[in-house]
Amino acid sequence: MKFDDLVAPYIENLAPYEPGKPVEQLERELGVRGAIKMASNENPFGPSPKGMAAAREALSGVNRYPDGGGFKLRQALAARHGVSMDEIVLGAGSNELIDLLVRTFCRTGEDEVLTHKYAFMMYRVSCQAHGVGLREVEVSRDLSCDVDALLAGVTPRTRLVFLPNPNNPTGSYLPRPELERLLAGLSPRLLLVVDEAYYEYARGRADYAVAESYRSPDRPLIVSLRTFSKAYGLAALRVGYAVGDARVIGYLNRVRMPFNVGTAAQEAARAALDDEEHVSRSIELNAAGMKQLEEGLARLPVTVYDSAANFLLIDLGRDVGPVYQELLVRGVIVRPLRALGLGRHVRVTVGSREENERFLGALTAVLSA
Asked: According to the CATH classification, is domain 3-46+277-368 in 3.40.50.1000?
């Protein structure tokens, strides 16, 4: 029996998404002990204490299904954003919402999604999983979004545009004048999805603008994505959300699976939303760690890209494969980016001071060997 006959060709040819290597897997494979993971843009300073307390309390009721509509969390998020609850939908991380957007608004074999090269990998995965074309336009020399190229990439088949802002894995963002130029040139009939997973880290930039501020009755087709996985430190609980026009959100709710965000996750996110002390501390420590890494990397023969997030993109100037493997042997897990077409690049998450020093020492040893 030919098993490839069981699925559509676009599923047969789909390469599964490979997340950053877990520490436990590295220890199993290489026998390395005391490894550190700086590959998945997690918050190294831990989860929100208020969020964890709320999650523990909620565990006593896990024999019951969660609130399928996430009323309390959506209520809190609506108040935070100054919108109605009908303009908020929850997802199991922003990954699920990306998939829902493609599945809901794009027709298999007919429509296209537009984004730029070196954008978040899940756009590609979700499009291919649903048999939807993905057009990735060229970027600027610093690998940031080229607004002119993005506008020129629109075709009659374009249905949805993904703009990661800041972008993973490059860390670049679209400054306010460029975002406004994009909006001026983009048809209001196209659905623009602005992925703001790293918003908390970028909001300190004077020229950073949030997409929601541009949504209006004349331009309703703007959707913003946010997550509790980064600055709030709740990555394992999988909580994200989208803000958009109530009609757009209503369609997503038709497709969204019931009970997609568990009770403990909802309660943790609701409590973490008010934990400004933890978020501020995470941002402050991230800035210090970013400076530490940039100063250390400036002494090495590599190119480092400016980042408004909690990670750095590094051009090693050589094939990434051997460097990545040698770092693994030294117990340091980073993210090679060959799958995105960046064969010389790694992405490293800002870690604790000790983790940053260990990474810099390991990379220095590998590059000088």
From this structure: no
The length of the chain in residues reads 369
Q: What is the dihedral of CA 106, 111, 114, 119, to 10 degrees?
A: 60
> Per the confidence metrics, is the pTM higher than 0.90?
yes
Domain boundaries for CATH 3.90.1150.10 within the chain: 3-46+277-368
The three-state (H, E, C) secondary structure of the chain, written as one string: CCHHHHCCHHHHCCCCCCCCCCHHHHHHHHCCCCCEECCCCCCCCCCCHHHHHHHHHHHHHCCCCCCCCCHHHHHHHHHHHCCCHHHEEEECHHHHHHHHHHHHHCCCCCCEEEEECCCCHHHHHHHHHCCCEEEEECCCCCCCCCHHHHHHCCCCCEEEEEEECCCCCCCCCCCHHHHHHHHHHCCCCCEEEEECCCHHHHCCCCCCCCHHHHCECCECCEEEEEECCCCCCCHHHCCEEEECCHHHHHHHHHHCCCCCCCHHHHHHHHHHHCCHHHHHHHHHHHHHHHHHHHHHHCCCCCEECCCCCCEEEEECCCCHHHHHHHHHHCCEECEEEHHHCEEEEEEEECCCHHHHHHHHHHHHHHHHC
Per run of 10 residues, the mean pLDDT along the chain (length 369 residues) is: 68 64 68 84 94 95 92 97 97 95 94 96 93 96 96 97 97 97 96 97 94 94 97 95 97 94 96 95 96 97 96 96 93 92 95 96 93
Phi, psi of 303 (to 5 degrees): -110, 130
CATH code linked to domain 49-273: 3.40.640.10
